């Protein structure tokens, strides 16, 4: 069950190295602490090899690229591969600019990835080498809906096989596949799109789940996606008059903090195709 994957995070307290964007770095650190993991942040090329060596997983997020951080991503990724650590890529805004697209594609080529997590536009960009996206948000034309769900499931399975890693596409309907099976997940709230960083937080949390569940990686990735979506539902149910997106962000993190395996098993809404 997915709940066991969550409980394993709390039992093992995985240390996760995050090279993430400076818009959401604090939220990523806090959600990792909330789910039971331990975060450390570093993107300096002279620092990342030592830092990633002491961790169990590496979360690479390209949301605010610069030349220094790009060097750090490749250096940390290669060191993590040498140590057989979990490596997750979050290709934020791939398709929005040549630098983002080229960097994401090169990271996918140069590193052995455990997982890729992004919205549908970002994942399509990686699959095709080019694409369009609405800034860092998915293009409406790409959205996964009930009408195109079967097609989307086929796409994510094929891309996961090609990429040789787990692929998680998040949106109104979330998809998680290892190329063989696909979890179709329906947790979450549309209001989560009004907060900057829920995807970035999920990538950090998913890295921790993968580290804590080495023998059940696909289920672990799906558990992380369900947990974030469920936290969005719980957090929204606790909103009061006058609350806004800043409060909602905190309520989501609080929901993760108070969540356990039983809560997740009771609230997760998914099917396997």
Oligomer: single chain
* Distance between the first and last residues' Cα: 16 Å
Task: Report the structural category.
Answer: alpha/beta
How can the largest sheet be summarized?
9 strands, mixed
CATH topology: UDP-N-acetylmuramoyl-L-alanine:D-glutamate ligase
Mean pLDDT value: 95
Strand content: 5-15%
The CATH architecture can be named as: 3-Layer(aba) Sandwich
Give, in order, the helices and strands. HEHEHEHEHEHHEEEHHHHE
Q: Return the CATH class.
A: Alpha Beta
CATH homolog superfamily: Ribokinase
Poorly predicted parts: none
Task: Please give the radius of gyration in angstroms.
Answer: 17 Å
- Strand arrangement, major sheet: 2-1-3-4-5-6-7-8-9
Tally of helical runs: 11
Number of strands: 9
Overall form: globular
Domain count: the total is 1
Helix content: 40-55%
Task: Walk me through this protein's architecture.
The protein has 273 residues and is an alpha/beta fold. The chain has a single domain (2-272), classed as UDP-N-acetylmuramoyl-L-alanine:D-glutamate ligase (3-Layer(aba) Sandwich). Helix content is 51%, strand content 14%. The chain has 11 helices and 9 strands. It has helices spanning 2-12, 25-35, 45-53, 67-82, 98-110, 120-128, 149-163, 198-212, 217-237, 245-257, 261-267, and strands at residues 15-19, 38-41, 57-61, 86-90, 115-118, 166-169, 174-177, 182-185, 270-272. It has a 9-stranded mixed sheet, with helices on both faces. Helix 2 links the parallel strand 1 and strand 2. Helix 1 crosses helix 9, helix 8 packs across helix 9 and helix 9 crosses helix 10. It is globular.
